User: Which sequence fits this backbone?
């Protein structure tokens, strides 16, 4: 008989399965908690988080991606939100909190719609339509920027750093960041190419942030290999060599039978001669500085020192490439090829002690295509957080220049996009319209949070803000320092268009992905537990 059939098991007994609404609620709840956690850090008045790792190490930051990565989140849906932050970090370098907060809010609004019996597939479709439309609205409202708009570039850099540890010296750091980027820009096929890899960030604890500087060259965490080499070389002629300055594996390869002391001696003499020839070859090229990617034999070191040549070894490949961009030296793979025209130039090569460690400064390069920002600060925490702020500034300047487009921040852009989306929603019908309206409302989480984090009651302010936008003031935003509505552009709160387009894109993608899940099947070890639900 049919109802006496054996039940069929397709999953191991230990597997956990959550389905339908329960699955959706569980995932949305987890994502909301993640968003809620970073939300208090948004904007210049946002708070910091203190993160303590399992070894007791402390990080103090308000950088979205740093917080989420240190939290070691386990819930699978929450992890997807961390991915949003990571994508934003990789694509722009700033706006991580914005992206995560937005994703959380999109899901929260979706939950309201699910409660009203709107099917998640419909919500997903509406969100996608809204996100696409938002991209168009954003582009149309954005302004042009070029490499010569120094004031705007400064505002972009300062906006990225406002409210961070770097704040106290943001003018100086903004100027350094802009100078650094201008140095490393390449133009290929009439396109700006900016590779931030070519700006090396080095940190030094001790002085104040204000003492940070831009080195027109590269700082290497390497000392000179021999004590009697000169500490300082002026008008350096730099050889970059990526083969070992040693005898080639005599120990393993050559089988020599030595039968008399004379033979032994002549063998040693021969070795010594080969090694001396290596040093001679370098000296003959006219080099007075050698950076070697591999090892340098003791005897070669000795001869190089005798010639007054400064040498450092085991330089990282990435640093070799930067040295090549900074000094214009060609990296040599076979020592026999080395000649004067392969050498690069630097005004000064010097061994300097920083934080009790010997470093090599290669500076005063002419038109270097790779530079170093030496970040200083009173404590390790300050220096680390300043570095994160500078990365945001560099990312923002670079994103602004690459696309050549910027918008104003302080909640103005989100409010304007929401307003236009509402207008657009009127042209749609039924349930999709609801989803687009929900999307518009979700965007307003940004101005609302900026207000809340500054201790301003958001309700009246948001109403007034929307009214200004209805009057055609597209840059009306929140001056978090006075608590009033102001023209964000005039306040100098400028951000790259890319921050906004990317945040909306990745937040929407993850929200849709989470919405479409109606079944969670977890093997025992990874069962999705409800995360901690209180205040964080
Ligand atoms: P994120 O990780 O998203 O970059 P931030 O903490 O850097 O988070 O905050 C960015 C938000 O703060 C943006 O919406 C930006 O427009 C806003 N903001 C930055 N500076 C100001 C300012 N001076 N006044 C008002 N809002 C600002
Ligand atoms: Mg930021």
Assistant:
């Amino acid at each position: 008989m049919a109802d006496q059939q054996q039940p069929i098991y397709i999953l191991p007994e230990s597997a956990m399965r959550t389905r339908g609404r329960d699955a959706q609620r569980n995932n949305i709840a987890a994502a909301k908690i993640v968003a809620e956690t970073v939300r208090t850090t948004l904007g210049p008045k946002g708070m910091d988080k203190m993160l303590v790792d399992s070894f007791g190490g402390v990080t103090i930051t308000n950088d979205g991606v740093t917080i989420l990565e240190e939290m070691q989140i386990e819930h699978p849906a929450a992890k997807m939100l961390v991915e949003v932050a990571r994508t934003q970090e990789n694509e722009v370098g700033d706006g991580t909190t914005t992206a995560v907060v937005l994703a959380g809010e999109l899901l929260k609004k979706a939950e309201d719609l699910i409660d009203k019996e709107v099917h998640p597939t419909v919500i997903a479709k509406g969100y996608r339509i809204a996100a696409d439309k938002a991209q168009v609205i954003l582009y149309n409202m954005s302004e042009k920027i070029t490499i010569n708009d120094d004031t705007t570039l400064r505002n972009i850099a300062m906006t990225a750093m406002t409210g961070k540890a770097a704040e106290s010296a943001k003018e100086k750091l903004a100027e350094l960041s802009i100078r650094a980027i201008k140095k490393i820009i390449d133009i290929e096929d009439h396109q700006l190419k900016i590779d931030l890899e070519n700006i090396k960030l080095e940190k030094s604890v001790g002085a104040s942030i204000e003492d940070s500087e831009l080195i027109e060259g590269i700082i290497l965490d390497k000392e000179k290999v021999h004590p009697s080499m000169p500490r300082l070389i002026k008008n350096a002629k730099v050889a970059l060599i990526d083969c070992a300055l040693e005898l080639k594996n005599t120990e393993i390869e050559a089988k020599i039978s030595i039968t008399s002391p004379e033979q032994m001696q002549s063998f040693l003499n021969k070795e010594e001669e080969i090694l001396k020839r290596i040093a001679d070859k370098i000296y003959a090229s006219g080099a007075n500085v050698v950076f070697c990617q591999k090892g340098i034999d003791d005897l070669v070191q000795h001869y190089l020192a005798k010639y007054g040549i400064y040498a450092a070894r085991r330089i990282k490949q990435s640093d070799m490439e930067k040295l090549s961009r900074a000094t214009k030296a060609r990296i040599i793979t076979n020592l026999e090829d080395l000649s004067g025209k392969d050498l690069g130039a630097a005004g000064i090569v010097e061994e300097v002690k920083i934080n009790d460690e010997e470093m090599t400064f290669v500076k005063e390069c002419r038109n270097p295509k790779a530079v170093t920002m030496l970040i200083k600060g009173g404590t390790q925490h300050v220096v680390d957080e300043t570095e994160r702020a500078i990365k945001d500034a560099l990312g923002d300047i670079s994103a602004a220049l690459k696309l050549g487009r910027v918008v104003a921040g302080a909640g103005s852009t989100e409010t304007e996009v929401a307003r236009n989306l509402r207008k657009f929603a009127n042209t749609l019908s039924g349930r999709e319209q609801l989803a687009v309206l929900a999307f518009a409302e979700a965007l307003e989480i940004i101005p609302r949070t900026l207000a809340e984090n500054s201790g301003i009651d958001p309700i009246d302010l948001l109403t007034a803000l929307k009214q200004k936008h209805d009057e055609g003031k597209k840059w009306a935003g929140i001056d978090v320092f006075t608590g009033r509505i102001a023209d964000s552009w005039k306040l100098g709160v400028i951000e790259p268009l890319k921050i906004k387009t990317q945040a909306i894109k990745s937040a929407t993608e993850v929200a849709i992905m989470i919405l479409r899940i109606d079944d969670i099947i977890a093997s025992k070890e990874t069962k999705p537990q409800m995360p901690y639900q209180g205040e964080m």
About this structure: The chain has a mean pLDDT of 89.
